[in-house]
Specification:
The chain contains 16 helices and 10 strands. With 331 residues, it is α/β, with parallel strands linked by helices. The strands form 4 sheets. It has a 3-stranded mixed β-sheet with strand order 1-2-3. It has a 3-stranded mixed β-sheet with strand order 8-9-10. A two-stranded antiparallel ribbon has the order 4-5.
């Protein structure tokens, strides 16, 4: 007769709290909708795909935004979302086809898929979610497609007409969790090291004197949206993000991409929150506390001497909160 399998090892109090906190947050996300994340008052700027790419850039800068939903007025349909990645693709097109520069100024937002194809970029899946669907569903869709933001699109069942309601970002969702679940996030006392949260190997880095174009090439080759800026001792000075590219090419000034990262960072808006750091010994509840109080888009992990150790993205945090141990919970 075969021996019975050994009893599973009992959970420690720390593990029990962690599991309880995650379970409660997931339950909260299943009960709340994407509508709930929206502020009481907000503005939405939607760009028509007939708009010139050059003009779209100026609109983003003038309105202090870094993305916008796209609308195809010819068929009255949602057509995707304009982000910094699209401008990176335009820059790559400029570099690969310098003789086409005169045409570039005449390209419209509708041309973005053609630009992707010309440079061999992987098309970004166009996803949206109905605002009344559970927030949990929107998050799962974001993680599956690696989207950092997702438009909320309503559909009139009688006419079949779509309406773009708003856009929710990973940051806004995490903020929503942090603000409304302090009694649950306080249970998440495991450290960054315990959770192996973030990326710690083969990190892309740059110096203040590195050109913007070199950093863009680094982002494209590594498929990342942020590059830590370090000194000769690997101490963290700042971080260059994909959205920092937008003011660099204002008015189609592609030649300025040969300028340094240090110069580009000076073009950030005054309300830019800068970078947030943490250590591997920081607990997840303290990270949620930081998100609750500040506009965090990622955390740079440093040691006691401020030397770079790793990077934690909002995707890393959301993936852990949503998916960690899910198989165990289902058992």
């Amino acid at each position: 007769m075969a021996d019975a399998p050994p009893d599973p090892k009992p959970l420690s109090p720390l593990d029990k709290d962690q599991r309880q906190g995650l379970k409660a947050i997931r339950e909260f996300l299943r009960k709340r909708t994407s509508y709930d994340v929206l502020p009481l008052s907000f503005r939405l700027i939607v760009l028509d795909t007939d708009l010139l790419i050059k003009k779209s850039l100026n609109i983003l800068i003038q309105n202090s935004i870094v993305s916008a939903p796209l609308w195809d007025s010819h068929i009255s349909r949602f057509a995707g979302i304009l982000t910094a990645t699209d401008y990176i693709n335009v820059i790559q097109y400029h570099c690969q086809f310098p003789d086409e520069m005169s045409k570039l100024d005449q390209f419209r937002l509708a041309s973005l898929p053609d630009i992707e194809k010309a440079i061999g970029a992987t098309p970004i899946e166009t996803v949206s979610v109905h605002p009344s669907k559970p927030l949990y569903e929107a998050l799962r869709r974001m993680l599956k497609t690696r989207a950092r933001r997702i438009p909320l699109v309503d559909l009139d069942e009688e006419t079949g007409r779509e309406t773009v309601i708003s856009v929710i970002t990973q940051y806004r969702i995490l903020k929503f969790i942090a603000v409304n679940n302090e009694h649950n996030t306080i249970l998440l006392k495991k450290t960054v090291r315990d959770l192996q949260l973030g990326t710690y190997t083969d990190l892309a880095v740059a110096r203040m004197g590195t050109t913007v174009l070199e950093v863009i090439n680094l982002m494209v080759s590594r498929n990342i949206s942020c590059v830590p800026i370090v000194d000769s001792e690997n101490r963290v000075l700042n971080a260059f993000e994909a959205v920092d590219i937008i003011p660099c090419i204002k008015g189609g000034a592609y030649d300025e991409l040969n300028g340094s990262v240090g110069e580009a960072l000076c073009k950030r808006p005054e309300d830019n929150p800068g970078i947030f750091t943490c250590s591997e010994d920081d607990r997840l509840d303290s990270i949620f506390d930081t998100i609750r109080k500040s506009r965090v888009h990622r955390l740079v992990v440093v040691d006691d001497e401020n030397k770079l150790k790793g990077v934690i993205s909002l995707s890393d945090i959301l993936k852990y909160v949503l998916l960690h141990g899910e198989e165990d919970d289902a058992a």
